[in-house]
Amino acid sequence: MTRLIVAAGGGGDAVAAAMLDAALYGDDNGRAVILTYAWDRLLIDPVPGPRGPENFTGLEPITPAVWKVPAQARPIAPAGSTLPRLAAELPPTFALLDPGHGAEGVTRQLEELVGHLQPESIDLLDVGGDALAQGDEPTLKSPLADAVTLAACAQVNAPIRLLIAGPGLDGELPLDDMRGLLGPVVHTLTARDVEPVSSVLEWHPSEATGMLAATARGVRGTCEVRDAGLPIPLTDEGPTIHEVDLDEALSRNQLARTIMTTAALDEVEALSREVCGFSEIDYERNKALWLKEQRPTQLAAESLLPQLDQFEAEARSRGVTHTTFRRLTEALNLDGTQREALRQLLINSRPEQYAAPLWRITAASTDHTSPAP
Known about the structure:
- 39% of the residues lie in helices and 17% in strands.
- It has 16 helices and 16 strands.
């Protein structure tokens, strides 16, 4: 028998699922199957929205509607995906969650997978807690993926446990707004729990899971994330994983209830616009067009480090203690393909500021020198 974990929002939720499984089951974590979206946002994938099986080569069938993403799978250009590399570096099996046929299609995928695997446990894991959104919160930015998985899990005839890791860390819902919904703490992540995914966190761009790992390692303060510079408190609540009643989450999540009978992603988007006032894929479409028109900054230490000093000075004035490399990439007018090079440049230049996987904003201005050639 095996364990099934549904990564509610894709992206970093898949990494968090591997971390959770290793924390709870240790060396036995090769028996986990993680069902996840291939939806890596524009830093990794320049094509808006999630990828389906038609966007990959090398997938392997598990059931008629579910495909395994092995290490040798590759996204078809121009699409991008972190899933093949995750499959190469982490023990669990990664299966592709495809929302192309709406919540009904995802429900069918889950039912097939549950029937095929006969898992001993099924967890729906959401980092941050936007699965608990009502849909009208002003801070809500990306409710669609979580709403689809929540709607599908609610229709599967099997016991499914909803877990919220790092409540508030994704910046979608303030922690205070969800306290009354959070059930018992299933586990509090520690630095030791992070180790199985530590190498992945060195390159994976997820901000929420990065902060989840950082708080497990003891980092505290305020982390600035995303292109908008959203401040996220890093507190003792950060590394906790709570169980939440799935039916209560569904009764609260208007979008999830509304999309339960959708049979296409276009339908889900249309209903998201009605319920929430927007579709996050529209945002990605608009941003992708904007990015095409931008000229990225040249990646040179002599020009970037002074820009970094200015960014850090302004961040300090906002009370920021940490930031992510995604935030730095966009704040310094670089594109997603330059993120890793920027990360290496900064760590080599100022290693004392690397609070893995975050970047620490120094408390006061320092006389920095450029790295040796």
